[in-house]
Design a protein that fits this description.
Elements: E1 8-14, H1 21-34, E2 39-44, H2 50-58, E3 63-65, H3 72-82, E4 88-96, H4 110-117, E5 121-126, H5 133-144, E6 150-158, H6 161-175, E7 179-184, E8 193-194, E9 197-198, H7 207-221, H8 224-237, H9 267-272, H10 283-290, E10 295-299, E11 304-306, H11 309-317, E12 321-325, E13 339-342, E14 344-345, H12 351-356, H13 358-369, E15 374-377, H14 379-383, E16 387-389, E17 395-397, E18 405-408, E19 414-422, E20 434-441, E21 443-446, E22 458-462, E23 471-472, E24 474-476, E25 479-482, E26 485-486, H15 492-505
Parallel strand pairs: 1-4, 1-5, 2-3, 2-4, 5-6, 6-7, 10-12, 10-13, 13-15, 15-25, 16-18
Antiparallel strand pairs: 8-9, 11-14, 16-17, 18-21, 19-20, 19-22, 20-26, 22-23, 24-25
Helix pairs in contact: 1-2, 1-7, 5-6
């Protein structure tokens, strides 16, 4: 098996958010693919939207690298398995290069992940309002942590070619780092945004055309051969694999479900069930692949598009089969499904279509009454309430499995990593066990204060001390629903327990 350090690799990091990392990364992936290379894309952190562009550019699933939710050993193992047939790995960073899970250390940052992978870094700088000052900024990033292997800069939002080369000269004089590419201010290369960030690639009618434009721009103004040479140089440098039990800087298991061991699915099994290649699993193929396996019906369309690929693969590894269905297109879980998984996404943008799928809500209420496992994250949680109020104030009836309503607001309601301690036995954890998750939402759950709180699923705690220690979510029987996004790779028990409940329910 190819190790993490046996593949050519490069990290595209930003001086901050909004410097154009996603545009540059997707363009570079597409340009390398046009040269006949198999590119494995990655995104640092708990992002679902940026990976949708990298997936389209590469023609294969983009994986998340998250050292807050996963141990070092788990991350390296996941990286290595994803790269088995790849010529190069291209990793987009998260936020700014040194921004991590809290104010005080590097865990969860692009810098930490680059060091763990022993990968060279190209730093993206927004030079739209800078000249020689750009050199001072790069010099600071270069010396903040000399262990981070910054090997060059990529300049974005240049006013002209002269502006880009002027900044490049100043940067090289101060840091000896070369400019390996630049892009102009070009609105045609900008990805549309909305309240949760960029509009997902799968929703853009012209996303393939946009990615093709990005590839043309990168090929014209970047030293792609030079970047490839830097990436190949990482193989010769190699590195030291983290011990299978994780490194000293890995998240502590404590009372949590994770045991620090590497948890990754068998790629052969995942592909056999049609998940690894990103293809939809039809009811017939799911049964053929699963044979006697219990089927998990997974909602997947424009309203439910936030899933870690590893979550589905690990469920398959534990013995389940996956069958996708589209709530937006009037579909519902097959009557033979042994469980349901409703992921996050944008249900608030599709209130009328979801409200009209009364057959879905009736089926889910019947399944819940029969104690069939139902797992819902964020957007999936929202649609299981009695109703959803969108940002324009329109309210739409939803599933009614949970009391109260999901209401959109005009401001951010929650963002960040969370320690989640189970308050009662649920699909993923036993009482007192703590796992790690992430929240990013603009809605809130509004319910009658008289509703009994003996159904709260998690006690949440943030990482930066700015999140109340709240009891949240809903757990009753085999229903688990909350705003929390969870990566199943953090502990082998998560997928195992979910599948075990499927078998019991069946």
């Amino acid at each position: 098996m190819k190790r993490a350090f046996d593949v050519s690799r490069i990290v595209i990091a930003g001086a901050s958010s909004n410097v154009g990392k996603t545009t540059i990364t997707a363009g570079l992936i597409a340009a390398l693919r046009q040269q006949g290379l198999t590119v494995q894309p990655f995104k640092c952190g708990p992002d679902y939207v940026d990976p949708s562009y990298h997936e389209r550019a590469a023609g294969r699933p983009c994986r998340n690298l998250d050292t807050w939710m996963l141990s070092d050993a788990q991350l390296l193992e996941s990286f290595a398995r994803a790269c088995q047939d790849a010529d190069i790995a291209v990793v987009e960073g998260v936020m700014g290069l040194y921004d991590g899970s809290d104010w005080h250390d590097e865990r969860g940052s692009t810098a930490q992940i680059a060091k763990l992978l022993n990968a060279p870094v190209l730093l993206v700088i927004d030079i739209s309002g800078s000249a020689r000052s750009a050199a001072a900024a790069v010099l600071g990033y270069q010396h903040f942590d000399p262990a981070v292997a910054i090997r060059g800069v990529l300049l974005n939002f240049a006013g002209s070619e002269r502006h880009a080369h002027g900044c490049a000269e100043a940067i090289e004089r101060a840091t000896a780092l070369p400019m390996l590419g630049w892009l102009p201010r070009d609105m045609q290369l900008q990805i549309p945004e909305r309240h949760l960030g960029l509009v997902p690639g799968g929703e853009q009618v012209d996303s393939d055309a946009l990615i093709a434009q990005m590839a043309v721009a990168v090929s014209a103004r970047f030293d792609v051969a030079g970047i490839m040479g830097i990436a190949r140089g990482a193989v010769s440098r190699g590195g030291t694999e983290a011990p299978r039990g994780g490194s000293s800087s890995a998240p502590a298991a404590g009372a949590g479900v994770g045991d620090g061991t590497a948890v990754t699915p068998s790629s052969a099994r995942a592909t056999a069930a049609g998940v690894d290649d990103g293809a939809a699993v039809t009811p017939s193929s799911a049964r053929a692949a699963g044979a006697s396996r219990p089927i998990i019906a997974v909602a997947r369309d424009e309203a439910f598009c936030f899933y870690y690929p590893e979550n589905l693969e690990l469920l398959i590894e534990e013995g389940a089969a996956v069958e996708f269905f589209s709530p937006l297109r009037g579909e519902r879980p097959d009557p033979g499904a042994a469980g349901v998984y409703l992921g996050g996404g944008y249900p608030e943008l599709h209130g009328p279509a979801l409200a009209s799928n009364t057959g879905l809500w009736s089926a889910l209420r019947d399944m819940h009454a029969d104690n069939i496992p139902i797992y819902a994250e964020c957007g999936g949680f929202m649609v299981l309430t009695e109703g959803l109020t969108d940002s324009e104030g329109h309210s739409w009836p939803m599933g009614g499995l949970l009391p109260g309503f999901a209401r959109m607001s005009g401001k951010l309601a929650a963002l960040g990593y969370r320690h989640a301690t189970a308050l009662r036995s649920n699909l993923l954890a036993e009482p007192g066990e703590t796992l790690r998750g992430h929240e990013f939402r603009y809605s809130s759950w509004v319910r009658d204060t008289n509703v009994a709180d003996d159904t709260a699923a998690w006690q949440l705690k943030g990482t930066r001390g700015d999140v109340p220690n709240d009891a949240v979510g809903y757990a009753r029987g085999n229903l688990l629903a909350s705003y929390l996004h969870v990566h199943f790779g953090q502990g082998r028990e998560l997928a195992k327990r979910f599948v075990r409940r499927l078998n019991r329910a069946g």
